[in-house]
Amino acid sequence: MGNVSRQPGIYFDTVSPAPASNLPRMDIAGFVGFASNGPLHIPVLIEDMAHFRDVFGEDIALAWDAQLKRMQYSLLGSTLEVFFRNGGLRCWVVRVADDNKDNLNNAAQSARFEIPGLYQAGDLLAASIRARSAGGWAKNLQLSARLSVQSLAVAKAALNSSPNSEILSKTDDYYQLQVRSVPANLVAGDLVELRCGADSLRAYLFVDNIEVGESAQLLLAKEVYWFDRAEVDSPPLSSPDNPAENSATQEMPVPLDEISGMQRYENFINNSPEQVPAIRWLRFDLLVWQGDALQSQINGLRFHYQHPRYWGRLPDDQLLYAELVHRNPVSLQPGMASLLEEISYPRFALAADFYNDKNPPSSPASENVFLPLTMASSSLAKNVATAEYDEFSPSVNNVNRDGLDIFSADLFLDTDLAGLSVSSLITEANYQRFNVGRSLKGIHSLLAIDEISMLAVPDMLHRHWDTNSPAFDYALPAPELDQISPADEHGRRQLNWTAVDNTRRYIVQQSLSSEFEDFSEYVNEKPDPLILDNDDNPPAAESEIKLFFTQDNCTRYYYFRVRAEDYGQFSSWSNTRVLRLPASIFSDCEKADASLLGLRLIYDSAASNANEIAFIWEAEDAQSQALILADEYQLQRSTDKGFIAAKTIYPAENNIKDLTEFSTPLLSDSVVYFRVRAKSGEVSGPWSNTLEIHPKWLSKLSLNGIDEYNDEDFKAVQFALIRMCAAKADTLAILSLPAHYQAAQVAAAIDDIKPGYKTASQNVSGFGSGNLHVMSLNISEQSALSYAALYYPWFRITANNSSSNTDSAIKLNKNIQLIPPVGAVCGKLAATANLRGAWIASENKTLQSVLGLGVSFTDQNMFNLMNKQLNIIVSSPRGFVVSSGNTLSQSKDLKALNVRRLLLLLRRLAMREGNIYTFEPMSADFRNRVQHYWDTLLNDLYQRGAFLGRSAGAAYRVVTDESVNNQRSLEQGQFIIELRVSPSQPLSFLHIRLTQNGSDQLLFQEL
């Protein structure tokens, strides 16, 4: 049929939707591991990486790995990256850490902030708020508060009275404030301020009710707080919104009792020439900053617990995400749903400080009423509060604040379930959840999520870390140039520098450019002073050099720098010194003298950590006037000592140009060089000394060596994970091994998993270095191995674990990671299940984002390990693929992974339909309907290739007749459906025969 031409216009085409599958989803995974923020031990539904980063933040820099010479990061985030890249659509994520409040030295800590200008109404204590979740992620945040003010007009009827006492009056039960009109969103619980002109008398009224009259509207309030002017005069607050308020802070007003307040108010009404107080409706905003970047904010918060937008109802992550899995969800008052929606995505960084078990959000304490006594209303005022932590550990670092100071199996397991067998695990879990009423922890928290069909714990594969400082060899330090000496009677000057140990010689460069674009170079074998001579006399010594001095009597600036050399190793360049010649020529008063702009760059160890480096700069010496003359500073970062590929990171990433301290994300896993200089107008000063920063210097923790590796905790989590999946009977454990394992270690680890093997690594007392101990699988639990599949080796990827405001150099350096294959495997299983079905093998498909393998095996080792049912990641012409799809089952029938996945699907179907059949009347009609339903369902699976057989009758059977439903079972209220299936086996080998037919022909035959 030819194309049909259409006239211009709008046409509606009906597209038939694809038929929806009636099968349970088999693509949903669960992941458990470490994250920088987010709720602890509570599953969170995640459907893309943006949501994951919003809730759980960036990967954590855990410890320095001396073997790989790089920082080891948490694996959860990068595992999620490859899960989504390989076809995953939906997963549940659990962040684990030590949250034991009885052991505060190791428990995760929450940052606390004072809210600027906000005070509790009763005792005038400063209000505080906490980070939404525990961890060191909030260390560099700052909080500011901004008062939102809207004026309310006084009612005309009250203005016409003489005196104007009707504006505010007092009855037995209420204060009554007459206003002309009330905004629609001003409701009970809102705060109204009454200001009495220059007298500075204030009254804060919390609205209880609003009455509408003929000529006015009455705001009724039981709670009123009176305040007088401050006893000490203070500078006014600055604000373009309110010229009378001209600063970020105000002096604290003096509280008055009710009688004194009313007397002062009546005196104002009767004697003041103004006689009309200002009425203002108050709200406030919370703004969270990271440096000068606004990280998150929430507007229109209120001060009284009765208001649905009361700031004290801001939930932390534990409360916000617990409503999805706990029996007692967050209680919502009318109007609070919109507040939760605002703070949920993107997630607001802070939460109320006073939630606890005795004070749940549904019944806040009555004293939680606050007043903005000194809060600024300026949008420009940034009176910020910084994070404070309750420090308990003598050696505090971010990992300690994250609750990860000690790596053990205890982080991943629930105390009451870790040591239980397959047969008793679910019973005890249900008892703890429903009878005791507590939430489970670690991997066991996912027992509350029925839809998960795959489960992986990537962060259980780390080596242990300790507080020993990482061992490293210091680089050759740079010398430091002293101030150039004044000229002697012969016009000679001395250039001195500090000596560097183990140095063969020193290289000195001289240039007329501060960037040393053209330079002369001199070599000194010793750190003796270099003589600078600008006379016409010949050099008097080997260490004397001639300056290029022009004869046009113009002023020139000569720049000098030096570095040390030791047999193929060079130090960084020293600071740059400037010499101005001729000295007798007057300088331009409009321009700064470059020789007076010297700076010294200092590394701030107290403010630096494994994720961020902090600097301070100061005048280089007493002669320098850089801090006085400079109007801008330039801080450069480079990955090469010569700053050839330097990037100016300040003030390019910061609008404020006159700071003398700065923090920036660290280029992890690489040596990074920093230098700074001052600028005054068009004049650029000399570059400072170079700081050479090694990431491992900033880490207070280091990974144990490979030869020290202890598999106690890894095995404890592994056995607990297998038992949990077998107890659920509808979930597959996706396992891997530590990254450093070689072929012999991999083979031994597989043997250790299987019951009956008694290798040297078996531990009869149970595994786990902490308080929890998990036994290896016993013979009665052998069938649990069919719920586990093992994948190895690890591979390298590029994972986007950097924040959006981080430059590309940092991202490239941080993001090349070695990760376990569990995320990619789950992604492929999910994609295959969605596209074709869970019974289809997902192996031999190209894994996305894989750059290379961490370990390679010989052909013989690969053959031996595959015989042990290890699923090996291999390189193929198409990319990297999983070479096999096996569970660890010793049963031949359950060895194929796709067979186990098919049976998991059938079990989920049976559980779903079984709930529907409950309380159905037992009859032949009911039995026939059930028989027909399952026949139809299994026939569809047969047509789609799930079962093996020449006909449907040979591939499956549904039995509901008297052979399984006898009279005795019917009398007991039982109805039994027996499903007999013959699962399709994956095609493992394709045999091809080539036969010579005649002299020049080959016969191709598939066998």
Distance between the termini: 44 Å
Q: Give the proportion of residues in helices.
A: 10-25%
Shape: flat
| Count of individual helical segments | 19
- Radius of gyration based on Cα positions: 37 Å
Structural class: alpha+beta
Which regions contain 5 or more consecutive residues with pLDDT less than 50?
Answer: 232-248, 355-366, 802-806, 808-813
- Characterize the largest beta sheet: strand count, sense, and whether it forms a barrel: 10 strands, antiparallel
- Report the average pLDDT across residues: 82
Strand percentage, roughly? 25-35%
Total beta-strand segments: 49
What features would you describe in this structure?
The chain has 1007 residues and is of the alpha+beta class. The chain contains 19 helices and 49 strands. Mean pLDDT is 82; it is low at 232-248, 355-366, 802-806 and 808-813.
